Amino acid sequence: MVKTSLIRRITKDSIDKILLLNKYLTSDDSHMLREEFNITSNELTHALAGHRDLGLVFNLQQEHETLSFDWSPFMHRVILKNDVVSKLDNVFINESCSKVLLLTTKRLLKVDIKKLNEKIDLVNEAISRYNHHIERERREIEHELLPKDL
């Protein structure tokens, strides 16, 4: 088993792309949403029914570059993907769990980023528990295998 890196909290530096989700949404942006986040035009329209007009794509960054960044098992427990997109859904993760899409409004931007960081904190708590478990197992194996006089 390999330890997993924690995820850095979202900051301005994490922004990969800003999307205007109204009549200015380009076909390239629409294609990116479909390909990277598996969101169809109909699902996007439904999610935007809550008057969201801004999409922010954030790159998730590792806290420790030397550790694994397979966040998938942890992310999917905290950020649940519904079979049907609801107008309450505003956070989406891509397939590799390396990016997050946040649908919001200019007015709610700070609040939604704060909530997203709270979700990242929950993911990091799960990762920390997992890493602690791995470290404890490693110490137990070392204790059993190494001679006592070393």
Task: Note down, in words, how this protein is organized.
By secondary structure, the protein is of the alpha+beta class. It has one domain (12-145). 41% of the residues lie in helices and 14% in strands. It contains 4 helices and 4 strands; from the N terminus they run E-H-H-E-H-E-E-H. It has helices spanning 27-37, 41-47, 72-78, 109-145; strands spanning 15-20, 54-59, 91-93, 99-104. A hairpin with a 5-residue loop joins strand 3 (91-93) and strand 4 (99-104). Helix 3 (72-78) packs across helix 4 (109-145). The two termini are 25 Å apart. The mean pLDDT is 86.
Based on secondary structure, the structural category is: alpha+beta
Count of individual beta strands: 4
The number of helices is: 4
- Cα separation of the termini: 25 Å
What is the strand arrangement across the widest sheet?
A: 1-2-4-3
Flag low-confidence runs: none
